[in-house]
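Format notes (please read before filing issues)

Several people have asked whether sequences and structure tokens are stored in separate files. They are not. Every record keeps both together, in the order shown below: the sequence lines, then the token lines. Line labels are part of the format and must not be stripped during preprocessing.
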Amino acid sequence: MPVSTEWAPALWRDTFDEMLNEDNELDYGDQWTLNFSYSQSDTVTKEEQKRGWKVYCHKAHGDFKCSSCSKIWHSARIVVLFRYRLQKDRGTVIMRPFGQTCRSCGNKQFERPGFPQDEVEMALDRLFSKIRKNCYREESDDEDDSPREEKLTKPHESALCEACMAGICSQDKDKKVVLRCAN
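Then the structure lines:
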């Protein structure tokens, strides 16, 4: 199976729409949209909290390709940040995938990750679980720390990780990071 190393917003948006409309993941009659912002952080100000914004950080598996030397690498520690809120009958999700830089050539540009379809579905399924819990007050039986098969990768290098530099990487199982992002 070919490795998906290209950042594909359409894959995320199409999967989001399919899970909403065909799988009825949020079957409450509200209209939800998915947008992208490559500068958002995990901090939610008091004013944003008053306006209903919540944050969910997801640790994903994906692949990168250096735009300079074409090296491809896998990572099991890609942070995908979601901000979401429901206002009246309109829900908004804003997503940011965090990048990594290439160890091989030293290119300092953060590359955006590519994700396989099943990883996108898993991330969105967990997001929808958070939305059902926090926006619709449903009980949640989905735990983010549920066991999953780990694909062996090289040790995480914080100096190459955009999320580490932003202070929100899931590499440490630091409870403060988990609690801050799990709202």
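For reference, the curators noted about this record: Residues 173-183 have pLDDT under 50 and may be disordered. Helices lie at 9-21, 46-50, 117-136, 162-166, 175-181.
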